[in-house]
Amino acid sequence: MPKTVRKKEIKKAAGHSFKQDRRVKDAKNVGKGVGQLRSNATIRRLQMYRTKVKRDKDGNMISGYITPKSQQIERGEPARVQPSRNWFQNTRVIGQQELTKFREALSSSYNDPYTVLLRSSKVPTQLLETDDRVAERKHLIKRQIDFDQAFGKKAQRKRVKLGAATLEELAHQGMEEEIAYDKEEDKATIEYKRAQEGWGNESAREMVFTKGTSKRIWGELYKVIDSSDVLIQVLDARDPLGCRCRHVEKYLNLEKRHKHLIFVLNKCDLVPTWSVVRWVKVLSREYPTLAFHASINNPFGKGSLIQLLRQFAQLHKDKKSISVGFVGYPNVGKSSIINTLRKKKVCAVAPIPGETKVWQFVTLMKRINLIDCPGITYPDEDTDAELVLRGVVRAEKVNQPRDYAAGIITRVKPEYLKTHYKVTHWSDHVDFLVQLAKKTGKLLKGGHPDIDLAARIMIYDWQRGKIPWFVAPPFDQSKEVKKEEKKEEEEEEEGEEGEERGCKTEKGEEEREERREERGEEREGNISKREESIESILEISL
Fold it and tell me: How confident is the model at residue 378 (pLDDT cuts 50, 70, 90)?
């Protein structure tokens, strides 16, 4: 006999999940999340997705609907939106006096390098930063673009401004300009001379001096700027102003004002302490500046830099982590600073420019990440000699290094050259290079000195810091004058006090002499009185 199996009766739920009028025992069970019942708004939204719209060739709906039937409006009837106070909740009203006060406070905070504006994206900076010239220009544009005056019945046309009303006046002006013309000051002659000398013409210059200015390098730079919250511009302590990237600073001030910029003076061990201290004071007026010495074993300034980065991480608490980008000229020590902070070699370093080819992402700690950037140079008015001496170009790729060694000899003190290269006397840079080649054994066939190789050795020593040299920091002349004036005033006061003291001492000596004479007379009188009294006693005794 086959077994009979009874089917289990399945009880359906009292309310379907798409039923809006279902009964709910506890209102807490309605909402988002696992195990929660659907709300009426969710049911309406899901039902809207189920409706399919069919259209004809002209695009008219044949069946189905987009909006619920309760919200559908027949054709020809006006559609209205239900008014609500929530539209005006985020609006604020401010007076003109409060606006001017806030504008002044904002400008002072922008100019101060040690203040940080939090949530700058929520501040209407374009409304606060008003420029009178821009306003005047917009006003002129509005006046010029007037439809009625340009295209209407009242259209007006401005007269052309002519320098001369007649042909005679025009010929007279031409004669005066011809007399005042100077051929030497003409732009065409200046460019022709520069092209003949090989300066300023990119085709005449060597391709080595265009390194660091390619589109690829600048693309890497803008990647680092866009992906970093804090930017550290690394400067060489020997020549900080020559290694500043003015173009990057201008770009940050105009386009990326919410990003923080810091100066780090690297290679401070090659410069005297007073020079580093003075440079830090001078550069701190514009941006926060730190002195640093990149070394894995014996660093300087590592703790202060990490502490500053932690402060920036505290300012940006809304982010999980912040990114710190390192930018600057080639061969200033960007990768060395990252290795110093990590206390191990994570970036490739070398004492030659152009070692870093692409940007590199390094994790310093949980909330701070570092980004290394290849060295950049902006094609400005720097000469080829300045680019070589700043370490932008490799010495082995220069065609005539003897020309650039002359700049080293003129900038370095003769005492340092004598002690380093053991050359006592020389007439010019060629004579110096000849003696250096003979001393180091750099000779060509026939015993002739290899001047170019000696010049390259000298450039190598210059770029690696073996030859002591640095640019002196600027001093405030007004402060020095005030100090000198204070010294002169103190000296004059001391002289007047000395004269008064001298007068007082002379008077004191005279009084002392008078007192001594009086005391001597008193002593003589007392002695005579004693003698008289002794004689009288003797007479009485006899």
Answer: confident
Tokens 């732009």 belong to which residue?
187
CA atoms within 13 A on the CB side of 37: 19
Q: State the Cα angle at 247 between 222 and 386, rounded to 5°.
A: 115
Tallying the residues shown for the chain, one arrives at 542
3-state secondary structure of 164: coil
- Model confidence at 402, in pLDDT bands (50, 70, 90)? confident
Q: What is the pLDDT of residue 323?
A: 93
CB proximity list for 183: less than 8 A, separation 6 or greater: 189
Asked if residue 346 lies in contact with residue 300, where contact means CB atoms within 8 angstroms, the answer is no
Please tell me the pTM assigned to this model.
0.59
Helix (H) or strand (E) holding 420: helix 414-421
Our CA angle for 208, 212, 218, nearest 5°, is 150
Query: Over the range 299-328, which residues count as b (16 or more CB within 10 Å of their CB) and which as e?
Result: bebbeebeebbeebbeebeeeeebbbbbbb
CA distance 20 to 15: 9
185-210: per-residue pLDDT in tens? 887 777 777 666 544 444 445 666 66
Positive or negative, the CA dihedral 494, 500, 505, 506 is: positive
In 343-383, which residue ranges form alpha helices assigned H by DSSP?
none
CA distance 227 to 361: 10
State the Cα–Cα distance between residues 172 and 78, nearest whole angstrom: 74
Cα–chain center distance at 335? 19
User: CB atoms < 10 A from the CB of 359, how many?
Assistant: 18
